[in-house]
Structures are given as C-alpha cells and as structure tokens.
Write a structure and sequence with these properties.
There is one protein chain. The protein is an alpha+beta fold. The protein folds into two domains: 2-85, Alpha-Beta Plaits (2-Layer Sandwich), CATH 3.30.70; 90-220, Alpha-Beta Plaits (2-Layer Sandwich). The protein contains eight helices and nine strands. It has helices at 11-20, 37-43, 59-72, 94-101, 131-140, 157-163, 180-194, 216-220, and strands at residues 2-7, 26-32, 49-55, 82-85, 90-91, 119-127, 147-154, 170-179, 203-209. It has a nine-stranded antiparallel sheet. The longest helix is centred in the C-terminal third of the chain and has 15 residues, at 180-194. The radius of gyration is 18 Å and the shape is globular.
Length: 221
C-alpha cells in the first residue's frame, strides 16, 4: 500500500500522475502538518493542510512512480511531501484484489520477513454511514475497536468491472489492530456480515505490524 502525504493544493496533479501511471483506484482523506514554528521558519515554509492518498500497487509500479515523483514533482525537496510503501499481507478475496489493483498485472510473491509479526493492521473500506455494521461484524470475531477515517474514493467505476457491484465515492476507512492469529477470522466476519452483499459493500485487507505499545489487554489474553 502506497501512502502519499502532500500539501492539499497539490492533490489534483498527484492524482493526475497516478491515473496516467495506471493507478486508477485511490482513497483520499485530509490531514494537517505538525512541524514546529521554528522548523517552518527555518525552511521558509507556511503551515499547510494536507491530503493523504492511499493506493495499492505492484512493487514494479512503485519504482516507476517513485522516479516520477522525484523528477516531475521534486518530492524530495523540503516541504513538498512524502510517499512510502508498506507491504500487504492479505486481501479479502480475489475480486477485492482485482478492484484495488485495477489494470495492474499482479504477480504473487513469497512472503517477506514480516510474516513472523505478532499483530496485523486490518483496513476496511466501506460505504459511508456503515461504521456500526462493520464494527459489529469485526467485534463478533474478537476485534476490540477501531479508528475511522472519512475518505473519498476515485476509480469506483472499476468496482462494477471487477466486483459486479457499484460503489459510492464517499467512504469510511476503518483501522483495526489485531493479533495475527485473529486476523483471518475478523476479515472473514467482515466479508460475510458487511461485505459486498450488504449495504456497507466493505472490502478488507491487512498489513503487518512490527511492534506495538498500548495493547496490554490483548497481550495478556
């Protein structure tokens, strides 16, 4: 999963580049920078509102995107933004994979060294207004709670092509940290109770978590 954090007024040009490079499905949410006043003064910058863009891509495609971000947008210059990738560990179903990667050529590879992690970050993307439906499904499988981001999706027309359903652009992104041995059960519960056959139309995938603090109750269990 590639995450891009940029000044909000730069969003359209970044989305344009991603579309040109075949990244048709993105999820966009808003944020704000937290650099100190002294740091902003040092670089001659002003505090700005941020856009955060999430998209799933193949590693080979990342190398192309990375080069374009550096050469076309000079993302390495101070204050221009940042883009980084995190390996996915699982995606809930072939249709969800096809939707998230759209027209990219997917090649399954061996698991990385992160396969030995204890926790996973489960990310659920659902139609707006269905948080309780999603969380009820996740809690029924042992999830404790989650954090919600409001987002807008692009490329939702790809859903009908690959998944046989239409999806609304307004989304909720729900982040749940769970033990690795609970991950599959939670993902399956979300797919069954809040998935494509429900009004939530949720898709779900997970990322490895290398370490945690603040999950003492889970660790004691």
């Amino acid at each position: 999963m590639m995450t891009t954090i940029i000044n909000r007024n730069q969003m359209k040009k970044y989305l344009g580049l991603y579309k040109e490079e075949g990244l048709l499905v993105t999820f966009i949410t808003l944020g704000s920078g937290t650099a100190s006043g002294a740091m902003l003064d040092y670089f001659g910058l002003e505090a700005t509102e941020k856009t955060v863009i999430f998209t799933v891509l193949e590693e080979d495609r990342w190398l192309i995107i990375q080069k374009a971000l550096r050469h076309k947008f000079r993302i390495d210059a101070p204050g221009e933004g940042i883009a980084f990738i995190v390996p996915l560990s699982s995606i809930g179903g072939k249709k969800a994979l096809q939707f998230l990667t759209a027209d990219q050529e997917f090649r399954k590879e061996e698991e990385s060294a992160l396969k030995d992690t204890v926790y996973e970050l489960i990310i659920i993307i659902a139609n707006q207004g269905n948080i309780e439906l999603v969380m009820d499904a996740a809690r029924s499988a042992g999830a404790y709670g989650g954090t919600v981001l409001h987002a807008k999706g692009t490329g939702m027309e790809q859903a009908e092509k690959f998944m046989g359903v239409s999806l609304a652009a307004e989304k909720e992104m729900i982040f749940i940290v769970a033990k690795k041995d609970q991950k599959n059960v939670i993902m399956q519960a979300v797919m069954e109770k809040a998935g494509l056959k429900t009004k939530a139309k949720a898709i779900v995938f997970s990322l490895p978590v290398t370490d945690t603090a603040g999950l003492r109750l889970l660790e004691e269990d």
